[in-house]
Amino acid sequence: MNENSGWVGLANSRLARTTNGGLNWSYQLPNFSVGSTTDLYFYDSLKGWGGTRLSRILKTTTSGNVWGYQRDSSASYTISFIDSSNGWTGDMGVSHTTNGGGIITHINSYTNFIPEDYKLYQNYPNPFNSQTKISFEVKSNSFVKLIIYDITGREINIWQSNGILLSGRHEFLFDAKGLSSGVYFYKLEARTQDGVVVFSKSKKMILSK
To answer: Which structural domain, as residue segments, surrounds residue 46?
Structure first.
């Protein structure tokens, strides 16, 4: 970004940031798997993207303190933007965005307590404009999937844990930038390691712009 601030992509779903010209580095760890981050582009001191070997593009709007991801149709080995909306990624082909990559997906976890049961909370705020938080509790370590649908039943966004999600409280931030106002639904599903569904529940939310 400048002579003091910068980021570097690392293997094993890690990134690192320096604010003193590289004298010291601190890890920034996305809470999901992206493999190696192969390219980084920051539009300003807050907003940046990361290319990966997977069909996920890293994105942050908080200087990397929280990272989310956006879906790509293929791997995004290299990445470049000309402004905050228009950018390209490439590896086995080229992808182009005109809305900053669209929906951002990320999740925060709090595992210092064990809930008494599985629970899906009403999103907050609701109705919401652009962003809303969906919280849920997992009683025991589980494979978890959170799906968001529009009113016709079309899948808008799917988040699923990369392996086992630890028991505790988890918060999913849904960014609906690029979606139109209306009624949407979200469904949480938890499975055991043997594939047995132990929890499934849906709720309604309203996007109002």
So the answer is: 6-97
